[in-house]
Design a protein that fits this description.
Number of domains: 2
Structural class: alpha/beta
Bound molecules: pantoate
Shape: globular
Helix content: 25-40%
CATH architecture of the largest domain: 3-Layer(aba) Sandwich
Number of strands: 9
Oligomer: single chain
Distance between the termini: 40 Å
Length: about 280
């Protein structure tokens, strides 16, 4: 596996793979877990070469968020990337992505104003901007993202289409711990009691799925199914629960099975904010 740092080195490594080579790209913020590695392995299976980036992107963190404490393990990450079959690992510094004078940002409108976007102002502007830069340097055939960050996939799909970036977007299922907790680098913040409590997100989604499978189509009653499960966990403080149109993320009144619904939630457990979601169809 080749390890590169600057934009120039990455572009050079990409050129060396060959213009006609299919390249699968997995952008990450590091502290890699099975969710990331499943994307790398899939990229390697579906494309001739796999490229991954590790960059804790400062522009997607709010001023009171966890940028300075975000978990990092570069040596561990490189070892598991190599094992997963990654061909090129790109580890840019902040100044490689945002050199002095940098002043261009990508703002996706509409779908960024709700859910995570409403609670984390500027977050998706940071995500869209960095992903646009990463895609422009790596020039992949396909880019791989996890369903865990459902709104991010909707925002980036919009950006890729609107800006004609010419990349196929692949969204892979959320990888879960045996008890159902969605894998996330932020799970490392949880102490044992919080870790046990965190399974409440998955249980809340399951309650909604069960209600939906039983014929419930009223979105408020589906939201209540989630809220009631969260209320039963003393360590969990709900931020939002949502039953939204999976295409544009507008909140639903009634779920039309022909369209389905994205059920999602954000919950604070201690100082850690966790998100999870499930598609109902
Ligand atoms: O999903 C993430 O880890 C990040 O938002 C991404 C896509 C790597 C952009 O920094």
């Amino acid at each position: 596996m080749k390890v590169v740092r600057t934009r120039g080195e990455c572009a050079q490594a990409r050129a060396e793979l060959g213009l006609g080579t299919t390249v699968g790209f997995v952008p990450t913020m590091g502290y890699l877990h099975e969710g990331h590695l499943s994307l790398v392995r899939r990229a390697k299976t579906e494309c001739a070469a796999a490229v991954a980036s590790i960059f804790v992107n400062p522009t997607q963190f709010g001023p009171t968020e966890d940028l300075s404490t975000y978990p990092r393990d570069l040596d561990g990450d490189l070892a598991v990337l190599e094992e997963a079959g990654c061909d090129v690992a790109w580890l840019p510094e902040v100044a490689d992505i945002y050199p002095p004078g940098f002043s261009t940002f990508v703002d996706v409108e509409g779908v960024t104003t709700v859910l995570e976007g409403a609670r984390r102002p500027g977050h998706f502007r940071g995500v869209a901007t960095v992903v646009a830069i990463l895609l422009n340097v790596v020039r992949p055939t396909r880019a791989y993202f996890g369903q865990k960050d459902a709104q991010q996939t909707v925002v980036l799909r919009r950006m890729i289409e609107d800006l004609a970036l010419g990349v196929d977007m692949v969204v892979a299922p959320t990888v879960r711990e045996p008890d159902g907790l969605a894998m996330s680098s932020r799970n490392s913040y949880l102490d044992p009691a919080q870790r046990a409590a965190a399974v409440v997100l998955h249980r809340a989604l399951q309650a909604t799925r069960t209600a939906y499978a039983g014929g419930e189509r009223d979105a408020d009653r589906l939201r209540t199914a989630m809220t009631e499960v969260i209320a039963g966990e003393p360590l969990a403080e709900p931020d939002y629960v949502s039953v939204a149109d999976p295409r544009d993320l507008t909140e639903l009144t009634v779920v039309d099975p022909a369209v389905g619904a994205l059920t999602s939630l954000a919950v604070r457990i201690g100082r850690t904010r966790l998100i999870d979601n499930e598609l109902l169809f």
